[in-house]
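Good morning,

Attaching, inline, the backbone tokens for the sequence recovery test we're adding to the shared suite. The designed sequence is right after.
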């Protein structure tokens, strides 16, 4: 066994925050994760991966490195639908990669990743042969190529433009007020990286990958998450900061992941901020996708300017509204940022807890923050189930014509480093479809919505997949929720003079392959829209 050769005790101060172990290859350099799409069948990392997986499958169940035991960690602990999704899976991969390094005998082994944007089918090394002949083979049901609306460049470009960490990597659990580990699997809302490419690829592959409890038994799981992790690192490289909130940073995943010697690796979110701190890097980040000529989604205007038309146009709120809603108290040791962050309103909005807000608020309201800033918020309840032959429209009232209310903010050209107006819609408490292959297409303010409205309609916003709806821990009887950024769609519509009326209308059209139309039924119980 390679054991300790693979890790050198940290002396370098750069790694002090990480503690005693430095996770690098034997040469003391970061290992480089490369795309499986560029690897020959006998590529040394791919060959090492085959050896490692075969070795893990051969280990007795008593060994913590046994294949199914490692897979069971996912069943037992994985957070989905909240802001621990990304760091938890980063740690899971890092622990797995170290074990592969040891069991493969390749001291600089790096886990390949599957860049599904550029390789729409299962990499051949994972589909060839059968379970006896190929350790990477696993039964799957996928036949089609992964579609553009799930993994295409426009989806990735939208994801990489997410203005803050929770918009990018799913939001904090509703009502979270501590870093106690009981919050690990409580629900926040899924955002596009998770509900679209992450969930969509899981479901599309079929077999074990389509179930939370079994997905990491499929050797492709680790390469799928490699690409998700690479998108996180890419988003950071584009200049976006991770959350600074203590309930995120100080959260511990203790006693969940094994070290290669079988002992527990105790790790907190603050240890998982960059690949560098964990001794790996990616050969190629996705920064080019941000240059995709999707001009409708140029960064928004300066926040402060965007507020003025709103403050002027909307009638003053009733007296009961004058009491500022204060963010939930934070632990004492919060470091106030030295300067005002461009995303401070977004942060304040998240600290209030949109779900709590929606219980207090009916109709359109201006919500004043203790900081003196404000945003607009409105909700609508819903009883209707959308199905493949019957899209549902849920109107959310804003009591002023939208072109006046948000047009000027949508029109203004972007200013570097500032978060512009954002229109966030949250579909709350979604009863998931029985047919798990259902994709829920989300449109906004479409003038002639029908079951045949196409994906390239100007009013199309995104598509939602449903992975793990039956798995998450419900803090109540509620189902999961998703948050959708409507800004690029509304900007495109405004510029094309297609934005009318005084309501943001969410239109939902489920699409499924199965014959049973009712199995595609999707029902969100509430829609909330915030203009931030
Ligand atoms: Cu925890 Cu992709 O799953």
């Amino acid at each position: 066994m390679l054991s300790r050769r693979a890790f050198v005790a940290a002396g370098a101060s750069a790694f002090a925050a990480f503690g005693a172990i430095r996770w690098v290859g034997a040469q003391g350099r970061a290992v480089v994760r490369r795309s499986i799409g560029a690897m020959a069948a006998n590529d040394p990392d791919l060959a090492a991966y085959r050896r490692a997986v075969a070795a893990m499958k051969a280990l007795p169940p008593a060994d913590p490195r046994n294949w199914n035991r490692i897979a069971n960690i996912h069943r037992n602990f994985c957070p989905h639908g909240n802001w621990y999704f990304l760091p938890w899976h980063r740690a899971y991969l890092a622990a797995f990669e170290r074990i592969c390094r040891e069991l493969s005998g390749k001291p600089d082994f790096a886990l390949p990743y599957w860049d599904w944007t550029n390789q729409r089918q299962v990499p051949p090394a994972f589909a060839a042969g059968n379970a006896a002949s190929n350790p990477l083979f696993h039964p799957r049901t996928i036949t089609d190529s992964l579609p553009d609306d799930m993994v295409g460049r426009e989806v990735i470009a939208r994801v990489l433009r997410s203005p803050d960490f929770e918009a990018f990597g799913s939001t904090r659990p509703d009502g979270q007020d501590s870093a106690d580990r009981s919050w690990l699997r409580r629900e926040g809302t899924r955002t596009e990286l998770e509900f679209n490419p992450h969930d969509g690829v899981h479901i599309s592959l079929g077999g074990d990958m389509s179930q939370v409890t079994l997905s990491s038994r499929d050797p492709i799981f680790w390469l799928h998450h490699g690409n998700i992790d690479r998108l996180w690192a890419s988003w950071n490289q584009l200049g976006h900061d991770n959350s600074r909130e203590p309930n995120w940073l100080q959260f511990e995943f203790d006693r969940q992941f094994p070290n290669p010697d079988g002992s527990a690796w105790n790790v907190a979110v603050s240890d998982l901020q960059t690949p560098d701190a964990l001794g790996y890097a990616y050969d190629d980040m996705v920064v080019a996708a941000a240059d995709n000529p999707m001009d409708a989604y140029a960064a928004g205007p300066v926040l402060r300017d965007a507020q003025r038309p709103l403050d002027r146009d909307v009638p003053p709120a009733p007296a009961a509204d004058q009491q500022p809603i204060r963010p939930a108290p934070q632990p004492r040791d919060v470091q106030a940022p030295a300067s005002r962050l461009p995303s401070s309103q977004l942060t304040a909005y998240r600290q209030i807890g949109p779900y709590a807000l929606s219980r207090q608020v009916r109709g359109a309201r201006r919500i004043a923050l203790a900081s003196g800033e404000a945003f607009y918020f409105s909700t609508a309840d819903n009883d209707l189930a959308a199905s493949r032959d019957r899209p549902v429209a849920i109107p959310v009232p804003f009591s002023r014509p939208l072109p006046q209310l948000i047009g000027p903010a949508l029109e203004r050209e972007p200013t570097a480093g500032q978060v512009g107006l954002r229109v966030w819609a949250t579909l709350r408490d979604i009863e998931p479809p029985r047919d798990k292959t259902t994709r829920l297409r989300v449109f906004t303010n479409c003038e002639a919505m029908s079951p045949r409205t196409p994906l390239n309609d100007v009013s199309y916003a995104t598509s939602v997949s449903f992975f793990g709806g039956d798995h998450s821990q419900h803090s109540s009887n509620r189902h999961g929720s998703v948050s959708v950024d409507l800004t690029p769609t509304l900007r495109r519509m405004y510029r094309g003079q297609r934005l009318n009326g005084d309501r943001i209308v969410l239109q939902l059209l489920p699409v499924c392959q199965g014959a049973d139309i009712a199995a595609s039924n999707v029902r969100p119980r509430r829609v909330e829209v915030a203009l931030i």
